[in-house]
Write a structure and sequence with these properties.
Blueprint: E1 5-13, E2 18-25, H1 32-45, E3 49-59, E4 69-71, H2 84-92, E5 96-98, E6 107-115, E7 118-122, E8 127-129, E9 133-135, E10 140-145, E11 149-158
Protein name: RNA polymerase alpha subunit
Keywords: Chloroplast, Plastid
Organism: Lepocinclis steinii
Length: about 160
Amino acid sequence: MRLFKLTISNSLKTASSFFSVLTFQGGFSSDPFTLGNLVRSFLLKEKLIVSDILFFAKKINGTFRNDYRLVSIFSDFEELGQSFDDLCFIIKNLSFVNLKDNDSVSFWRGSIDFSGPVRFINSSDIVFSPPTLAISSGFKVGDISSDSLSIKIIFKVIL
């Protein structure tokens, strides 16, 4: 295992981008472009990812109790326009924007609450705690077509 010391010698932040000059210290015999590509691939891996998606449902007409119950992603509700598995895929592929660059927060909790009758769920309906995270572009997440079903989706976004 080789150890390298990587320091940021200069940084420049513009309105739409961020640039840094990196300095490598330590002996390496390989091509410096190879080392630069390794660092670049590591930095590109650092992104916000979604984990721990939980689905809760309750029937408004009284067949469930009045509180939400945890449901599996394999549960099938006719009232949903798509399966929980499809919703899970859509949520995992959202792209996020951190609203505070200097924030020390490394994870956020996202939640979506929706109930019928015909309701389209947009990415703007997602609420984050703490509120320093946003979805980079708005689009339809899913829909519900029943006035007797209420769904709550809670997930974690980690850096």
